[in-house]
Amino acid sequence: MSQVNEHHHHAPSTPGKLKPEKSPYNRLRIHSSLSKLTLWSSFFLAFILFLFILSPPSPSASPRRRSLGDSWGGSHWEKRVAKSARRSSPSSLSVLVTGAAGFVGSHVSLSLKRRGDGVVGLDNFNRYYDPALKRARQRLLDRAGVFVVDADLNDSALLRKLFDVVPFTHVMHLAAQAGVRYAMQNPQSYIHSNIAGFVNLLEASKSANPQPSIVWASSSSVYGLNSKVPFSEKDRTDQPASLYAATKKAGEEIAHSYNHIYGLSITGLRFFTVYGPWGRPDMAYFFFTKDILKGKQITIFESLDGGTVARDFTYIDDIVKGCLGALDTAKKSTGSGGKKKGPAQFRVFNLGNTSPVPVSELVAILEKLLKVKAKKKVLPMPTNGDVKFTHANISLAHRDLGYRPTTDLETGLRKFVKWYLEFYSKKSSW
């Protein structure tokens, strides 16, 4: 997994590295005029400032080209955005999907487009995992008529422009810095995306006219060290076990304040271990498949009591149905021009599968589907922020969203393996 700094600040690199050579004017005799010195030092400072302005962004701050003019703007770009946002009927939705080239984002965007909704995507294509996979999803969306804007959530001018071009009825906010373990290497990327990026989106939404209704991805990780099972939306969520979980919990609290102050209609969805075709390579089911096929040893973690880690694996198609159900039942925001006119809807739902599966069983299913015996190493679970198990109570989503997961793990993994073998056999011939 390539690990680069996720920050996408536009600031140039620090001029501190430009150590000027000693100016010949330092060698002037004592009686040199003070005014001359002042004049030349002014020139010198102006020259340094000129270099500072011209210096390119430092590689650590920006893993890819970040020129505004190249990324967005202009009449051709606006036409593409407007075309992508076109709805099949006045009752259809017009949705801004952030993280559209991501796993859940690409599936949700395609489903919305297929049923006639207008969809505009936004993604910064960061390198937390292979951007080639994100670009492949982008091509899929492009063929379906969904334009994915290549930009960062923290670009407030871009968000304002998008809301100017399209009066979005809904925002499906799925962009985030994902992963529990990566926070130990790059904590700032979680603050940048999951907190600053989310606030920027909420700011743009509260000022938009009309204000959109917002549905966003929280996470089952907010339950943290909660040991009462299954996890219910009424349970305490103030003991996060990872920085990732803490940023998602912070997002829930920030969302509540924007709902309360500005009348934004906001629904948070706590996803439980989503898997399936076009999935994320940093997830266990994905890299287990890769390593088993390569004959590499895989590591299975067990808890202190000797049981293996268990997860409430939820198939992507089930998650998509939950996302669309949340969008369809979201009430309108009540604010206008950034001012609240009345109380607005605020909801949180678990989207899981209600049947936790031990990771050892996940491996056994993969061995069967791949027809390869895995080389296993069992280790005690490290204290890296992971939790022993997750288990969703989904009665609230069932009641309010009509959410009914129907895919068991073996069926879902069979579909994933079929996609994986097809995608990576094609990729090797690119």
TrEMBL record:
Entry membrane topology: Multi-pass membrane protein
Gene3D superfamilies: NAD(P)-binding Rossmann-like Domain
InterPro entries: Epimerase_deHydtase (IPR001509), NAD(P)-bd_dom_sf (IPR036291)
EC category: isomerase
GO terms assigned for molecular function: UDP-glucuronate 4-epimerase activity
Subcellular compartments: Golgi apparatus, Golgi stack membrane
TM region positions: 37-55
UniProt catalytic activity: UDP-alpha-D-glucuronate = UDP-alpha-D-galacturonate
Domain (NAD-dependent epimerase/dehydratase) ranges: 95-331
EC number(s) recorded for this UniProt protein: 5.1.3.6
Coiled coil region boundaries: none
Family (UniProt): Belongs to the NAD(P)-dependent epimerase/dehydratase family.
Protein name stated in the entry: UDP-glucuronate 4-epimerase
Top-level taxonomy: Eukaryota, Viridiplantae, Streptophyta, Embryophyta, Tracheophyta
